[in-house]
Amino acid sequence: MPHLHDAIQAAFLWYDMHLWAFQVGDRRYERKDEEVWMEPMFGPPVMEVNTKKMDFFVNSKVPPVIYTYDFGDDWVHRVEFVSKRPVEPNEPLPRFVSGQWATPPEDIGGPPMYGVFKEARQDENHPEHDWAKEAGYVDWAHDEIHADVVSEQFAKLQRQKTRRTSRWVMEG
User: Do residues 48 and 109 share a domain?
Assistant: First the structure.
């Protein structure tokens, strides 16, 4: 699952600066980092995120997979695998296939502030216009996915032979 997290971070052009988790049915998976880990007081125990491989998700009996990033901003995503195909020998993975819209910038304030961000970005008279212009990555526009930039982030993941335990940062 850490590789799936890395791919989501690359697709969103985020910097992997926050805690994250996957929820699969009643099971929660997180990185049990010694520096920040504390077992929850309530609910089922949290599983180590490294205990599940991608093959697990391809099974049609697996309940919906929920990915949560940045527990303060609380970005919650439903992850769906829509199709599978054989992997070609030496095919570079992960691979960005396509997308539809730009993604929210990192640390924008969660879904409620993303709405404000989009409004302020469009309206030069909006009181938060200057903030919105500075908060966006590249030349952010809602209808522009910046596939070239996202593809470059995936290329960086492809060049990593193994997943680093430290956070990877997008390089310029």
Answer: no
Torsion sign over Cα 119, 122, 125, 128? positive
pLDDT in tens, 6-43: 999 999 999 898 989 998 888 888 887 766 666 667 77
Cα 13 to its chain centre, rounded Å, is 8
The length of the chain, given as a count of residues: 172
Q: Is residue 169 part of a domain?
A: no
70 and 126 within one domain: no
Entry pTM: 0.82
**Is residue 20 domain-shared with residue 79, that is, in the same domain?**
yes
160 contacts 154 by C-beta, under 8 angstroms: no
Could you tell me if 64 and 118 lie in one domain?
no
Q: What is the pLDDT of residue 162?
A: 55
| Helix or strand (DSSP H, E) at 75 | strand 75-79
Residue 53 lies in a domain: yes
Paired tokens of 23: 């929820």
Q: How far is CA 140 from CA 13, 36, 87, 102, 149, in A?
A: 11, 33, 33, 7, 12
pLDDT tens column, 75-127:
999 988 777 778 888 888 888 888 888 888 888 899 999 999 999 988 999 99
Same domain, 15 and 64: yes
> For residue 11, what are the contacts with CB-CB under 8 A and spacing of at least 6?
96, 99, 103, 150, 153, 154
